[in-house]
Amino acid sequence: MLVNTKAKVGVFSIALGAYLPQFPSLVPEFEAQYDAFKKTIPDTVQIIDGGMVTTKEQSQAAGDLFRAADVDLVFLQLLTYATSYNMLPAVRDLDVPVVLVNVQKLKAPDYANTDIPKWLGELYACGAVGEMVADLERADKRHAVITGVVEGGDPVVTAEIEDWCKAAQVRRRFRDTNLAQIGRPYPGMMDLYIDETNLYHRMFVYTKQFDWEKMWAIADNITDEAAIRAKAEDILDTFEIEGGGTVEKVWDMAKYVVAFEQWCKDEQLGFVASHYDGFAQGKAGVLDSMLIPAFSMLIKQGTACAVEGDIKVAMAMSILKTIAGTGQLSEMYSIDFDEDICIIGHSGSGDADISYKKPTMKIVPVFHGKTGGGYLTQFYPPTGDVTYLGITQDKDGNFKFVVAEGVNEEGPIFTFGDTNMRTRFSCGAREFCNRWSEAGPTHHMAAAAGRHIDTILKVAKIFNVPVDIVTR
Question: Which residues pair with 275 in a beta bridge?
């Protein structure tokens, strides 16, 4: 990642204080269970440890800690039965989901040899879950439940915890990085227009505005020839260039990529949305001709770059890149009615990590629908499962996710230099087009290899936005 972030996850456990003096053996038992639980949290996140809570005062202290750290998510381990006043003070002032981890230590009771301490300490967690959810609902808090077992390992629990941590990382990237808007959206694409203040209030993303004059000069001070040469070799390693590529051929491009990388670090940029609608002469023409591969190099390193000034699809690309490792700009291209296949793709910057073979780069005299000409890049997403994510808004400015899962299949694709996929949907191509369009997305969406709707639903719960599931 050009700009690194790390989610902050609040973690605490609760037990009924009345049990502890009655059954002193429960104290070391619960402490050991809590320590073991914390080790199941992946090291991709930073744990904010609220400790083992058995009183309202301890819960308040945990809440103070979580609030001060600005946690992205809270995991609550239910050790045994506990009253909800142990939980509520810890989460009362937070606006993030509370994930109730209802994980029993033992798979099944040894009925004849189970006394009360063993039952309370190793076989009783589920009794408190309903109480916790009831009071979270009354407190208007978002919540989820994970139920499972420790003994023998539980891959479902492990996967759920990892998924929630990925979702939390999206919030942290949106909160800690900035979005660069260069120029303005493509004229007339009113579905892309956005209120940046509303964006900050609802999705935490702060927009920094840049004009193209600054961008044309961005590489003027780049003089480190070793860094430029290394980046040129990185470009040649990333792309297959039509007619052959050399360091000298991509030298100017590499210089701009080095400059853009430093710019992303200096400005803490996790997203870039740009569109140039000028005359493309002089410096403008040089940069405009190589923006597509240059921004593709940034996408490869985790900074989502969207064409046509589309801020919302830049966010969708970032979400998928964060949770799935790939985030490819796409839109509906065509329908093959004979094969019942949707052709989906886009011209412009893309994600090399989604390409099963080396992406190609070639020079074209005209960028269709845009000024100038220059380098086009084509990426080759693999066959198999694929997820699409669009982000849109309603009339009141509220955001909504639109998602679909399908399967990319082998077959002919367009060869004029744009990335495209042959996607089959379970509802059929005609019905997919109807349903997706009726959901009211922008005409852009992001794509990722694999099936990721379940994780996207967790991201949506963290951001408190609705989700339209078109097909899966």
Answer: 183
Q: Is 437 helix (H, G, I), strand (E, B) or coil?
A: helix
Give the per-residue pLDDT at 374. 80
**CA gap 285, 402 in Å, rounded:** 36
Cβ contacts of residue 342 below 8 Å, gap of 6+? 332, 334, 335, 336, 406, 422, 423, 424, 425, 429, 432, 433
Is the CB of residue 261 less than 8 Å from the CB of residue 252? no
d(C-alpha 117, C-alpha 24), whole Å: 9
Q: Answer yes or no: are the C-beta atoms of 36 and 150 closer than 8 Å.
A: yes
Determine the pLDDT at residue 281. 81
Strands 374-378 and 419-424: unpaired
pLDDT of residue 217: 92
Q: What is the dihedral of CA 179, 185, 186, 192, to 10 degrees?
A: 90
Instruction: Name the pTM for this structure.
Output: 0.95
DSSP label at 302? T
Is 423 within 8 Å of 408 (Cβ atoms)? yes
Q: Measure the CA–CA gap between 450 and 111, rounded to whole angstroms.
A: 44
Q: What pLDDT sits at residue 365? A: 65
What are the backbone dihedrals phi and psi of residue 145, each rounded to the nearest 5 degrees, phi first? Answer: -125, 135
Phi-psi region of 191 (alpha: psi -120 to 50; beta: other; left: phi over 0): alpha
Residues in the chain with pLDDT values less than 70 = 365, 368, 370
